Amino acid sequence: MTSDKWSIEKRAPLRNDSVLKEENVPEIGCLSIVVLGASGDLAKKKTFPALFNLYRQGFLQSHEVYIFGYARTKISDEELRDRIRGYLVPSKNTVEGHEEDLTNFLQLIKYVCGSYDTEEGYRLLDKEISEHEIYRNCTEGSSRRLFYLALPPSVYPPVCKMIRKCCMNKSDLGGWTRIVVEKPFGRDLESAEQLSNQIGELFEEPQIYRIDHYLGKELVQNLLVLRFANRFFMPLWNRDNIDNIQIVFREDFGTDGRGGYFDQYGIIRDIIQNHLLQVLCLVAMEKPVSLKPEHIRDEKVKVLQSVVPIKDEEVVLGQYEGYLEDPTVPDGSYTPTFATMVLRIHNERWEGVPFILKAGKALNSRKAEIRIQFKEVPGDIFKSNKQGRNEFVIRLQPSEAMYMKLTVKQPGLKMSTVQSEMDLSYGQRYQEVTIPEAYERLILDTIRGDQQHFVRRDELKAAWEIFTPLLHRIDKGEFKSLPYKPGSRGPEEADKLLEKAGYVQTHGYIWIPPTL
Length: 516
Description:
One of its GO terms (cellular component) is cytosol. The protein has 516 residues and is α/β, with parallel strands linked by helices.
């Protein structure tokens, strides 16, 4: 452009990434689902039941799918089927025909025994998969292979190496090979990056599905719709109206025999760094350009990169009395079973709004919820602020619900106010609907190639950058846990931290889920 003339400059076209395709290409090749760690608890309690429910609802068809279990345990096909049979239970709407569905589903399962770090077992697994594909008259290269690693992260690298070497789809004619990996993805930033590098050398990012089952929960998946499809929320969802936000996970039981495993990670690595932080991203993110997975995940990464370092004075750790009595827990363990912390997001929307993440075991109740507390009404002519602030609560589990806590007139002749609620309880509103389990939804997303509800590599890195400094100090014993009694709310200091952060508790009001 010169000083006196304008010119039109043509912009370069957008890159044609496969992850940004308008529509998924129809996939017609046969589907092989391989559950590695098939004899373990995760596979029995979560993976196989999720596959059974997808089969029962018609998302997995007998004529196209076959399921392979792979583990070191030397058992037969029938023994594996017997092991998982008791976990495949009917839902309220599928009692009729359950036994027939169960029998037909179990016949789709074949077991292959082999080690996780040598070729022999994987060669045999590949042979069995190929025979299934030939039997289904599947064109070579059009078949779909999904590997679900229901295994400890320590064996991910050798397992992925063997899959890459022995079990990949042979050519690219519309088929694919995908892997699903479970959390925890490392113990800190360094180990997570090392694990990402090892897997990333073997598979492309669109082939890797890092599963966080909280992203499959019904109410978590509702967050985007709630925020961006309802006009009245849009002007309220910011620092001008919201005082503080709590994201809470509470369990009313301890480690229950899993103390040795839990002690390797603790409540921050087990719950806060992944589950609660993912929920925070969905609550705090900006509106994405579209619903394409990469656009949504881009906005989540921006939130994580805007989180400022956690301050020591905004963290309370706890360990319930009796935890160290578990014979599987090391003597003198510093591992917290409870944590409350304040995260702060440095951007235009959320500057000054504390995000309070709270998780604990052996507490006085079991629930997971998001609690958005609004600021007090200015010029309160009813003097109702003392009764409590408006709150919007999203109950993730149990008794899924959304309710708005607000002030209304007390029925009667007097002009007095009382706290009440506008309530959407799913059990009452959607009585004929069976809410899918998170694993069902996420496995189906994997088959469809939709990575929206999975953690991207840069997202994982940004999450670990937030928590690694604090975790290293805890591991060294520099940040001690406070004792608390099982069945309590946790350490009293946690409630004081909430109060200091600005949360105002409502006294005299209790939300009661409506009865059917």
